[in-house]
Each structure stands twice: as structure tokens, then as C-alpha cells.
Amino acid sequence: MKFSEHWLRTLVDPPIDSDELAHRLTMAGLEVEERGTAAPPFTGVVVGRVLAVARHPDADRLTVCQVDIGSGKPLSIVCGAPNAAAGMTAACALVGAELPGGLVISKAAMRGVESEGMLCSAKELGTGDDASGLLVLDPGLVPGADLRVALDLDDPVLTLKLTPNRADCLSIVGVAREVAAITGERLKPPPLSETPVVSKARRKVRVEDAVACPRFCGRVIAGIDPKAPTPEWMRRRLERSGIRSISAVVDVTNYVMLELGQPLHAYDDALLEGDIVVRFPRTGESLTLLNGQTLVLDPDLLLVADEAKPLGLAGIMGGEHSSIGDTTRNVFLEGAFWNTAVIQGKARRLGFTTDAGFRFERGVDFANAPMAVERATQLIVELCGGAAGPLVDVHGELPPRHPVHVRGERIARLLGVRIPPDTVAEIFRRLQLKPKRRGADFSCTPPSFRFDLALEEDFVEEVARLYGYDNIPSAPPVQPQTMLPAPENVRPAAELAARLVDRDYQEVITFSFVSSEWERVLGIEPNPIHVQNPIASNLDVMRSSLLGGLLDTLRTNANRKQDRVRIFEIGRCFLRGDEHYVQPLRVGGLACGPALPEQWGSAKRAVDFFDVKGDVEALATPLALKTEAAPHPALHPGRSAKVLVDGEPAGWLGELHPRLVRAFELPEAAVVFELDLERLSRRPRPAGRAVSKLPVVRRDLAVVIDENVPAQAVLDALIAAKPPSVDRLALFDVYRGPGVEPGKKSLAILVLIQDTARTLTDAEIDATVAVLLREIENRFGGTLRR
To answer: In 3D, which of 228, 227, 245 has the Cα closest to residue 236?
Structure first.
């Protein structure tokens, strides 16, 4: 919100300077983002009146002007502006004047004619962007008057950076209300008198959706002068608020919007057919807007129409064919209150913004529409003449204003300081909240323009704003320190992350929302959860796996010539459950490139399935981790496995499928894993075990079994059937080749045998080995390798 401080002070004039005013506004939550003056600094520029204009004798595009500056003797000034004319009042820079940009005016001969100054354009003075001609001034200004004083160019111009909930301050009256509440100064509202109804001209209004348009006010003003000029004071206030002057009627609607915060729209009544209708579009309807854009109307775009055609987008922009022109004699003036839900997001979707849409999508005062129409009628009749018809006010159910109970104890609890109830009552009175007091408690009813006040906490915030945040003492927080429980049987995620870091992995954090194309290519979840309002078009679904983000990170590193990548992420995935969404916490990892950093001690080789399996086993230790060959849509057939932790499915591990290598444009296949963090977070309670003082006996068993029998299945069977004296079983070699029949493989199994009480005899050791061999033979048909 940009406005002139001098305009503000016509409504409320506290005895503080501009610096203090800006500080008080900022400390009350209305941040003053920018401050300046109506024009940049310049000196030596006065009001001049052109007495005569003659053609330059040696230049077709130059004229010689005789300019009265109030000194008795006219100045002779050479001018190149095409609009220089006798009788006009213009800005005249005298010899010695210093203009914005450092230009100093001096006497100069131009094509043989001496020039005693310079007639200035708006751009040369920094008051506007128009450089096509001289700045035309009000003929009533006195020649020789200092231009800065005559045009009030030292007027401070403030720009507020308002939060979205303070749309009530998108008007000069709204800001003045705040200044009056902050300073305690009396508010003087704009002069408003009801315009006499002297015409019977009117148009009926029909609202087809009272929820979308709770209130619509309209009035016909007949017989205006469309060419009446906009007065200088109004044009000045508009321009200092960033709005260009167009014509008197349009300027009045813009002025009332700035003054009262209620956007208005004026239609050429002669171009309207029948009643005004507020409705949603019909199939195939189109509309050409004031900016020249032609729209095929979506079904959710609310329209203001007549009985034959659409007239404009409600609350956003009017249509081109019904706009005010030089021949307009009768005006239909519209002021409405639109449901914010109908306006929000529409202008952004259409690719433009308007001052009206900016206000309506944040909310305007629903009680303000008839007053704004009356104010605009008053100004149009004053400036353009005409006869006002009766005001049509069609309204349905308006937003209720319910009283809210505000407790004194709640104020003290939230602010950390006890504010006297009399002070609180005075703050509520200044804010026009109609407080009803009961001891230290209050019942407050928010006015129609404060639609952001609904909860008790909202009113407590108002107390803090006006009491002054700097008056609330800073006190150290009191926080009881308690020891949090650390269950021994649960491992925190940080511990698991540290294990992967120790295995040479780097942690990454990727977006929880990913591309639906990724999810389709991965093929893990056919129906991912869609994001209703994605921050980017390619991040439109919630991830069902960590793999997409890891592969994208790998691609980024590969494109930057990083040949060895080992990364992991701990994060949530998002899946559809039977009744609700489920959000499992998972750990995913990826390894690609050489197994070891480049070094002289070992030959370079690519990381493989078993390298990453070792990392996963280290992550799960001391839990029992097993892998079983199983297909997975994102993994290479025959090089993927299901991971079991303590016999329960916990995730998957394997080499990336070749189609994903192509889809993500990777230089080679990576080995990836994804595990359920809840399974890995368990930690068995430690249990004591006697340490034997007797020697351990080692036996190595080489058994031949069928190729299709998993080695893990053999180990599981031996562990289940082992005698008590067997301390450990482990696979340390797999052999295929000469000496082993085709379709067979040889497993070398370590067996450690030990008793804590006595030394085992050879017969006992042989019997133990025989039990193990018998189990292999009976379960798998295996034989001892000869």
C-alpha cells in the first residue's frame, strides 16, 4: 500500500514527525517498507507561464518561448517539446537550477538563439515517466512560485508491506484508523453526504449465487460530462499511490478504492441490455477484458453480466465493450462484496493481477459497498455533473460478527506481562471492538472491516500491538530440565546414520514430493498420492520410495564427473492405506562406481551386490539379517533380493534395472537398498555368556549340494539342528569347477566346537560333525566332498 503522508494527515494528524510515524506504524505490525518524497531533490525550478511561442529561425523542431516567471521581464527559452503553446503553465528551470541526475542549467546559445532556462518534462523532474512533452501545470498556479511548494513535491510517500491478514489497511482510511488507534488521535473520516436522488433511471440486479456474491450495490448516474477534467488534487493523490490518471469517472472509482478500500467499477449504461445478472459462465462463453485479453471462460469464473452478454470478471477486471469512453453520458456504478473463495487464485491463473482482485481475494469490508457507491456518486456529480438515480442494494446473508470472550488471565499468560484492565479496555475502544468489561475479562465484537479477528488469541495480539512490543519486558524462559528416557532396546536413527557414514556413505536430503514420471518409471507404486497444489509442475506426487531422489542425486553427481558415489537418505515415504495414508520411515542407500577409492594397494573394481550387502549387514548388526532372491520392479532380474530382519520382511536390495539406468541417464548400474527403519531400530538386550577357558575345535566341512539350493537355507538348517557344543557356523567359500559335477556347487562351512566345562573328546567331536552332515544329507541331499 503506497500513499501520500499529507493525504493521510487530512484524516488523522498526530503531533509526531514523519520518522516517528513510520516507526510507530512498523512497531504496530504495519511495516513501512519504503519511504521517499513525491519527487527527487532539485532546486531552482518555478512555475512559468508561456506568453508567446515562435518558430526557431534555424531549426524546424525548436521553438522560442517567452515565459513569465513573475519577475516582470519574460525569459526567452528555446524549447523542443511538441506541446509548447502560448497560455500554458509549465515547469521552468532557471539558470543555476540543479535537476535530478546532477544536470545544472546555464545560459546557452542554441542554433544562434540564447536560452535563459529550460522548460521541463515530468521525467526530467522525476515526477513521472512522460518525456514526450512539457509537464502541464494547473493554470491557477502563480508564475514564479517555487514548484516544490506549488505541487507539494516534498510530500513524504510511504509504502507499507502488509501481511495478508491486514487487507483492511489497503486504504487510506484503514491506515488512518490504525494511526488513530496507535496514537490516540481523533479520526476525521472523509466528508460523505448522501447524494440527492433526482433521476428515476435504474437497473434491476439479479444475483444467481448469493454465496458467491453476498452483496451487490449499483446506481445509474445520468447526463454526465465524459470530458470533464480530473482535478489536480485527485490526480496528485492517485499518482503518488502508483495509479495513472485516465478520465474523471475512472479516476473517481480508483480514488474511492484507495480512500475507502472498496473497489468499484463503472459501466457505460448505454451499452447494457436489461438487468444486471451475477452468475457463473455458460458453456462456450468468452469475454474480452479491458487489457485486451480474450478468455474462454472457465466454469468457476464468476461474472457480472447483463441479460445478453458477460460484462466483466467479478472482482477482477471489467470487459472491454462496456467500458467508459469519451461518448459516455450515463454511467452504471457497481460496488459489490464478493466471497473471497470465489476470487482467490483466479487472477494468478489468468496470468495478471489487478488492484481490485488483490483486495477482494484478501477480503474487503462487506458493510462498505453502499457507502463507497455514495462517495463515488458524490464525486462524479461534483466533477462531471449528472443526475443520480436510486441506489440498488441486493444482499443475502452477510458474514456474522460474533462476540469473542477475551480473558485477562489469557492475555497475561500469552504476553508474559500483566497489562492493567483499564489499559486493555482503552486499546479495545480505540480499535472499535465494542468492548464489554467484566472485571479483567472482556467481550469484544470485531467490526466488519476486521475480518481477521476471530479467536481469543487474535485479540491478545491486538493488545500486544498497541501496548507496544518494546514495552513488554524480556524475561528468560523458564524450562524445567528433565531427563528423557532412552530405551535400551531401541536404536535412534542418528546411530544408524552414523554407521552408514562410517561405511563411507554421505547423507542426502531430497524432496518428499517427486515427479509422477519417476513413480511411473520405477513401477513400485501404481497409484501414488497426488499433491493438490504442487510447488512445481514436475513435483506433483508424494514419493512412495526413496529411490527416485537417490537416483536423481546420482545423476546430478555423474553429470559433474563424480565417478564414485555412495549416498543414503533417512526419510518418510507416503502410501495409501485401507482408511488413511501411511507414512513409513525408511532408510535407503545407493553405491555406484569403484568399490574403493582410487589407491595403489588394490586393483580398481566396480562395486557389486555383495559389497552393499556387507554394508546392510553392518547396519543391521546385531540383528539377524538374511537375504532371499526375489524379483523387484526396479531391480535387475536375478540380481535382487528380499531382506529379512529377525525373520520379518524389512525391505529389498539389488542392482538397478537396466531400463532405469537408461531412464535416469546413468553411466552404469548402481546397487541400491531400501529398508524399513522400524525393523532396524530394534536392539536386543545384551545377555551375559560364560567365556570358556578351554580350546576351541575347528572343523571345515566341504559339502556338495544342488546349484539351486540357497547357501543361506543350508546355514539356517544347520543352526536349527546344531548340538549345544557347536559355538559358531559360517560359510566361507563357494566353489564351482573341476572336481564338482555340473549343476552342483561346493560349500565350505566353518564349524567351531567348544564346551565351557570340559575338553571334548575326538569321539564327541566326530559325533557332532556327523549330526551336521546328516542334516545336510537328509534336508538337501548333500554329500561330503571327496
So the answer is: 245
Q: Which three cell numbers stand for residue 504?
A: 563411507
Residue type (1 letter), 9? R
SS3 258: helix
517-528 burial code (b ≥16 CB/10 A, e <16): ebbebbebbeeb
Q: Give 764: exposed, middle or buried? Use CB within 10 Å, 0-12, 13-18, 19+.
A: middle
Tell how strand 63-68 and strand 541-542 pair up: unpaired
Q: Read off the pLDDT band of 169 (50, 70, 90).
A: very high
Q: How many CB atoms lie within 10 A of CB 272?
A: 20
* Mean pLDDT over the full length of the chain: 91
Dist. CA 783–CA 544, nearest whole Å: 46
Does the pLDDT of residue 303 top 80, yes or no? yes
Nearest to 197 by CA among 360, 345, 391, 359: 391
**pTM for this predicted structure:** 0.68
Element (H, E) at 572: strand 565-572
Nearest one of 8, 299, 344, 340 to 177, comparing CA atoms: 8
Which amino acid is located at 172 in the chain? Answer: I
Average pLDDT over residues 766-785: 90
By the 8 A CB rule, do 722 and 729 touch?
Answer: yes
With H, G, I as helix, E, B as strand and everything else as coil, classify residue 90: strand
Judge whether 249 and 324 are in contact, CB under 8 Å.
yes
pLDDT, tens digit (0-9, with 9 covering 90-100), for 94-113: 999 999 988 899 988 888 88
187: nearest Cα among 13, 36, 329, 440: 13
- How far apart are the C-alpha atoms of 83 and 132, rounded to whole Å? 9
Output the CA–CA distances (angstroms, integers) from residue 114 to 48, 95, 188, in the order listed.
18, 12, 53
Supply φ then ψ for residue 201, to 5 degrees.
-65, 130
Indicate whether 294 pLDDT > 80.
Answer: yes
Q: What are the φ and ψ backbone dihedral angles of 433, each rounded to 5 degrees?
A: -95, 5
